[in-house]
TrEMBL record:
TM stretches of this protein: 20-41, 242-267, 294-316, 336-362, 389-408, 420-439, 703-722, 743-766, 786-810
Lineage: Bacteria, Bacillati, Actinomycetota, Actinomycetes, Micromonosporales
UniProt entry keywords in alphabetical sequence: Cell membrane, Membrane, Transmembrane, Transmembrane helix
Pfam families membership: FtsX
Record-given protein name: ABC3 transporter permease C-terminal domain-containing protein
GO cellular component labels: plasma membrane
Family, as annotated: Belongs to the ABC-4 integral membrane protein family.
Single Gene Ontology MF annotation: transmembrane transporter activity
Top-rank taxon: Bacteria
Membrane topology listed for this record: Multi-pass membrane protein
Subcellular location: Cell membrane
Boundaries of every ABC3 transporter permease C-terminal domain copy: 250-367, 702-817
Length: 828
């Protein structure tokens, strides 16, 4: 049967070309995603930057701390503490030591990512004086590029805004924007020691620090101290978050489309299979022939798809970099490494397996036909097999159950893209499996308005779709996937963002909010100047990291140091137990997700190394990512913080009788030049929304773009296959007296009907998804609307319909060049 299979491939070029295209693109998509995921497991070693000229670096670290398993920006407790004084003394005994400190220091109007260092470490990072001299007094600084020697500048730090004189300018480097102080001034601003550069023998240094909480880094390991290392981790975290979502949704869609396309190609050949059965072919021989064809097509298309996937992976990597998701150095390099070979092999085997599985069910069904019934079976359309019924009903039940679980059992799952987005695919695939059953009712529904139309055109279109329901369903499914995923993904993104905005509006009760303006946060000087404005009360929660013990595991949590009197006045925390009024220096307010009860003592490790025992004064309900602990300002010392000592924002309330206009003018004048701005609550929501939406929107829309583009190709591919196989239908129309224009209009109308069926199925599946989302968001944020970008979705649906029409009209117009009598004898 292998010889027959090869001859069949040659004879039916159009049908098999469609399956090859679908399989090639599907394998390319799977390979590209696999290669990108593999690249994350085999990242290149990044060279050191700030300590490229240092023989070694002593850095505080915890060997059991994996940054990938913790929130972005959070250090281990050892890193938060920095280098202990005892370690400094031991390292100093081995020879000369240079002390490094890193802290927020921004020249007013300068780059928001400026950082302060002592001048003594500049030489190790490639800095050299281009003009002027080194700082000699506490009032002098050296700026890395772009300043003028002799200028007086205001430098913002976590505590103050102070005037300094620029006495030197260095060459610019590409990894940071630095401001250098004298060693004494740097120690005053930031007591915490970031790292040490020992100039003595490395072996002696290692021996001196053995058994302590520090490491001696050499070679490329020195890059761990660079700020770009943390930025790389953040970018890679975004990539790690996006790629599994994209891979799961895009991969599942590709596999489903490929399997459906291949099965459809086999079903198209039922007449040929019937003839083989009548001339004596056994069921086993028929199955072997079909599977041999699938193996040949699957092998060739999968091999080509893997090669295309390699190029596609590099294009996707560049796209992720352009979107700001991945670091600039992220790429996929062709090699014989396992990170490349395994994804390629997996994609190849997936393609071959999908081809075989896509053909297996149809081949089994064809092989079961008795010879005497072969010709009759070839003419009858049986759209649903028992296996498809089983999968469709099971998928619909699973989709409904998953929607119910998300809506009522685990609403916070909607805020975790890796978990939530794949669930959106289940109802859509379920409706795709059940499409042949729904084609009949939907065809009658959509054609009902044309029941009174003159002529037989509407009747022919309706009956053609009803007679060949499997073909109609097969061509409608790509439209269903395209529009359904667009509605579900984009609707979920916009609805979740709208719900977050509503939650932020409900949480903030302050009159005004102080937010960063060209700076990474609000410093204490800005807060003090705001507080000095008559009639104004301000609270500026400074972000810290609180470490608690969960059994024998150290857990990190976000904490805010606040003024207790202003907390309840500016924020509406949904308190479950206790009262915010009980927040004192010896108590703490925690989120319910922390797992502590009212009045329970909590041992908290502060980031400066101190340990305090606090009692739970109140427990409140918080969303994932907003489960913050609140402390009093007793713990607001800069040394107690693992972050930069800045407030993310400050909340401002006006005392009774205060003139809002005068107060607003006074506040804006007070913070002028301090990297802060005064906004209303509505302006805050818009600002926070824009920042919070960006990454979420990029993630979800990236998935939508990749999937929709693939589905667009599948629409054209499937319609081309279906229309090219209908030359006999075209011939019958022509011999019945239809003009070429009427024939083209018939196929165009039928393709529009198919697209309409796909859109209606997409609306049904998406309605199930969005209903569950609405229930979940209502439980999390209160009453919230479901927002669907109607314009974008309508555009996608219109393009899908246009492609469906083109996929039907183009082969029809080409076939019309052949005489009608010749078409009746044509097989392709």
């Amino acid at each position: 049967m292998l010889g027959i299979a090869i001859q069949t491939l040659r004879a039916r070029k159009v049908s098999f070309a469609g399956t090859v295209v679908a399989l090639l693109l599907g394998v390319a998509q799977v390979a590209a995603m696999g290669l990108l995921l593999g690249a994350l497991l085999d990242l290149p070693d990044r060279p050191p930057q700030r300590f490229a000229g240092a023989p070694a670096v002593v850095y505080a670290s915890d060997p059991e701390w994996n940054p990938a398993h913790h929130d972005l920006g959070v250090r281990s407790l050892a890193e938060a503490k920095g280098i202990p004084d005892g370690v400094l003394q031991k390292v100093s005994a081995t020879g000369e030591v240079v002390v490094d400190r890193a802290f927020y220091a921004q020249v007013a109007g300068g780059a928001a990512d400026q950082v302060g260092h002592p001048w003594s470490v500049a030489r190790f990072g490639g800095y050299a004086l281009a003009q002027g001299r080194a700082p000699a007094t506490d009032g002098e600084v050296v700026v890395g590029g772009g300043s003028t020697v002799g200028a007086s500048v205001t430098v913002l730090t976590a505590d103050t805004a102070r005037e300094y004189q620029v006495v030197g300018v260095t060459n610019a480097v590409d990894y940071e924007h630095a401001v250098f102080f004298t060693d004494a001034e740097a120690a005053r601003i930031s007591p915490r020691i970031e790292a040490l550069v020992p100039l003595g023998p490395v072996a002696a240094v290692r021996a001196a620090v053995a058994g302590s909480t520090v490491e001696v880094l050499t070679g490329d390991d020195r890059h761990r101290v660079d700020a770009s290392s943390a930025r790389d981790r953040e970018a890679l975290d975004n990539t790690v978050t996006l790629l599994p979502i994209t891979a799961s949704v895009a991969g599942s869609t590709a596999v489903f489309v490929v399997a459906s396309t291949f099965a459809f190609a086999v079903v198209q050949r039922r007449r040929e299979v019937a003839l083989l059965r009548t001339v004596g072919a056994t069921p086993k021989q028929v199955r072997r022939m079909v599977l041999a064809e699938a193996l040949l097509v699957g092998t060739l298309a999968s091999a080509a798809g893997c090669v295309l996937g390699l190029f596609g992976a590099r294009l996707l990597a560049r796209w992720l970099i352009a979107l700001g998701i991945s670091p600039s150095w992220f790429d996929v390099h062709p090699s014989l490494a396992l990170s490349v070979l395994l994804p390629m092999l997996g994609a190849f085997l997936t393609g071959v397996l999908v081809a075989l599985l896509g053909a297996a069910a149809a081949s089994w069904r064809a092989g079961q036909v008795r010879p005497i019934e072969a010709l009759r079976d070839a003419a009858v359309d049986r759209p649903m097999t028992s296996g498809r019924w089983l999968l469709g009903v099971a998928g619909l039940a699973a989709g409904a159950g998953m929607v119910g679980y998300v809506g009522f059992g685990a609403p916070e799952m909607t805020l975790v893209p890796n978990k939530y987005v794949p669930t959106l695919l289940v109802p859509i695939l379920a409706f795709a499996l059940l499409a042949p059953v729904l084609v009949g009712p939907l065809t009658r529904l959509l054609m009902a308005p044309f029941g009174g139309a003159r002529g037989a055109g509407a009747m022919v279109v309706r009956e053609s779709a009803l007679t060949s329901r499997r073909r109609t369903a097969a061509t409608a499914v790509p439209v269903l996937l395209t529009v359904g995923l667009a509605i579900s993904l984009l609707g979920a993104t916009d609805s979740i963002n709208e719900a977050r905005d509503s939650g932020l509006r409900n949480q903030v009760s302050a009159d005004y909010v102080l937010t960063p303006d060209g700076s990474p946060g609000i410093n204490r000087a800005a807060v003090e100047k705001i507080a000095a404005v008559p009639g104004v009360q301000v609270v500026a929660p400074v972000l810290t990291t609180l470490y608690t013990m969960d059994g024998d595991q150290l857990q990190e949590n976000d904490g805010y140091a606040v003024d207790p009197a202003a907390l309840s006045r500016t924020l509406n925390l949904p308190v479950i137990e206790g009262s915010l009024d009980d927040l004192t220096d010896d108590t703490i307010v925690v989120a319910q997700s922390w797992g502590y009860e009212l009045g329970q003592p909590v041992e908290v490790f502060m980031a400066d190394g101190t340990t305090v025992s606090l009692r739970v004064a109140a427990v409140y309900e918080a969303l994932r990512g907003q489960d913050i602990g609140y402390l009093t300002q007793k713990y607001a010392g800069t040394g107690a913080y693992a972050r930069n000592g800045l407030a993310r924002r400050a909340y401002v309330s006006l005392e009774a009788g205060t003139d809002p206009t005068a107060a607003l003018a006074g506040m804006r004048a007070a913070v002028d030049g301090l990297g802060a701005q005064v906004l209303s609550t509505e302006d805050l929501v818009a600002t926070e929304s824009a920042a919070a939406r960006q990454l979420t929107a990029v993630r979800q829309r990236s998935v939508a773009v990749i999937v929709v583009v693939f589905c667009f190709i599948a629409i054209v591919n499937t319609l081309l296959m279906a229309t090219a196989d209908r030359r006999r239908d075209l011939a019958v129309l022509r011999l019945a007296g239809a003009t070429p224009r009427q024939v083209v209009a018939f196929f165009a109308a039928e393709s529009l009907l198919v697209a309409g069926i796909g859109v209606v199925l997409a609306l049904m599946a998406s309605a199930l998804n969005l209903a569950g989302l609405w229930v979940a968001l209502t439980g999390l944020f209160g009453t919230t609307p479901i927002v669907v970008p109607v314009g974008i979705v309508a555009g996608i649906a219109a393009v899908a319909a246009l492609l469906a029409v083109l996929g039907a009209v183009l082969p029809t117009a080409t076939a019309l060049r052949t005489r009608a009598v010749a078409l009746t004898a044509a097989r392709e």
